Amino acid sequence: MKRKILQVPVIVGKGSEQFFVEKDVKISPPSPPIFKIEEIEKKVVVTDAQVIPGKVIFNAYIWKNVIYKTVED
C-alpha cells in the first residue's frame, strides 16, 4: 500500500473581539464652538502582527478625520 503525506493548514485560533477607545479631543482656541459633526472618516492600519497559540498580538494605529460645522458656519 502506497502512502501519501498531505500538508493542510492548521487553525491556530479563531474569533473576534471589539474594544472601545475613548479620547478627549481639544479644539484649539480661538476656534468657535462645534455645532454639528458632519462626518467621521476612520482607518485602522496594522503595522505588525504575531500569532502565538491562543493569542494574536498586533500593533496598529487609528487615523481619524472629523468634519464638523461650527456655530458661525
Which terms summarize this structure?
0% helix, rod-shaped, single chain, mainly beta, two-stranded antiparallel ribbon
What strand order characterises the main sheet? 1-2
Please work out how many helical segments DSSP would assign.
0
Major sheet details:
2 strands, antiparallel
* pLDDT < 50 runs, ≥5 residues: none
Mean pLDDT, as a whole number? Answer: 83
How much of the sequence lies in strands comes to over 45%
Detailed description of the structure:
A hairpin with a 2-residue loop joins strand 1 (about 35-50) and strand 2 (about 55-70). With about 70 residues, this protein is mostly beta strands. The mean pLDDT is about 85. The chain has strands at about 35-50, 55-70. The chain is rod-shaped, with a radius of gyration of 23 Å. Helix content is about 0%, strand content about 50%.
Give a quick rundown of the structure:
This protein has 73 residues and is mostly beta strands. It contains no helices and two strands.
